[in-house]
Design brief:
The protein has 101 residues and is an all-alpha fold. 74% of the residues lie in helices and 0% in strands.
Amino acid sequence: MNSRLRPELGRLIEEDVQRGPYQSLDEFIERAVSLLHEQETWLASHRTEIAAKIEEGYAASQRGELLDQHAVRQRVARIVSSCIASLTFSSIASYFIPCKL
């Protein structure tokens, strides 16, 4: 399979291969495609939930039930803290190291 990339995208990839743990362009592309596939699979499997949440938020905004900036920042901080607390070294490393630990 052949593909053409915009020159600026090619430069970004070359920079990442030179700076990162990837031994080759093929290894970088395999990792990038795997990550994108995981994201797309997750989005496809949660599409109904996401649409429902968007509709719920829109309906709340139409009723004037909006959160202020401070409340939103606090909620996001709690979510991020919870996510960070659930991470393990292996789960973090798997995003940066293209091999099994």
